[in-house]
Amino acid sequence: MKAIVIGAGIVGSGVAYRLAEAGVEVTILEADRVGGGTSGISFAWTNSHGKEPRHYHDLNVAGMKAHAALAEEFPGQTWFHPSGSVAWRKTPQDREAMTRNFERLKSWGYAIEWIDRKRLAELEPDIDIDRVGDAIITYCPQEGYVDPVVYADAMVKAAQKRGAKLKTGVKVVDVETRNGNVTGVKGEDGSRHEADIVVNCAGRWAARVAQEPGLKLPLAPTTGFIVFTPPVATSVKHLVHAPDIHFRPDGAGRLMVRTNAADDLVSLDMTPSPTMPQAVEIMRRAAEVIPALKTVKAEAARITARPIPQDGLSAVGPTPRVNGYYFVVTHSGVTLSPFLAKAVTDEIVHNKTRPELENFRPSRFFN
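Predicted structure:
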């Protein structure tokens, strides 16, 4: 079997690795560079914290478990950080919402617990505990984060060791078919690449790699904005979700910082800058929680578009229109990648239908 995987981000790299491991002749086609798309501009939080409905929550929990298993499969790996996360809320409305979420997650068997200010200070001593006040606080010990580009690089290289080929600078612009079956893809440069199966892991570009309307997955991407600090003298170890700011370690003493509010104030046609007002405001809010950041200015800022299928849920499976064309497109790619890689390989190579994917079939978008 010859397979083309479109996209070498966190999803495509994982799929390519598992397919190659199963003996498939894999070619990875990447328009830019490994991890050069949305994967490289992601908060990369592995979680199922607020993901509904239940089947989507369960899928993300499976992804969290798959990350832990994959880390054991690659001794010495450096991409997975099962740090745990802390969060707190103060206003009556936010406290009520957090309590409802806590009770729902607890009833579903999720690892979440209430902690007090003393425990929070032990976990994150650099937080200004006075700013927390009388907030209610949760701790999720099994959550964490991933370095997506490091992960994607490791998966691609693992695939290459098993015979896969990586071709960068190939922008796929069409999926070629004959008599209802996939025959390969066409690159923007006119190049043609033959395959028995094409796996679309192109993320937010997933709808652009085929011209036929029946092969275009409807997407509803959202914009994300992330700020990076220079190396700072803090001991932040967890993902921290304060009421107005979210941050986590990003290596070498840097922090990755974001707010939900800033996402609505940027667009893809903007040129991101650490001095833009949105970045300045994010750093102001971060300094209110971590006093050590009071005089720190942002070092970098990045804007991205999240790949989200039109109904907000993952789209994983074959298209009903053409044999051999398979979608793996999801917003929760960071959390789901290692699980989906195995599940997709089971379906493509071993003809084993995975029931966990039943509610996420792309066929729901095609009449």
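Summary: The domain at 82-143+221-306 is CATH 3.30.9.10 (D-Amino Acid Oxidase; Chain A, domain 2).
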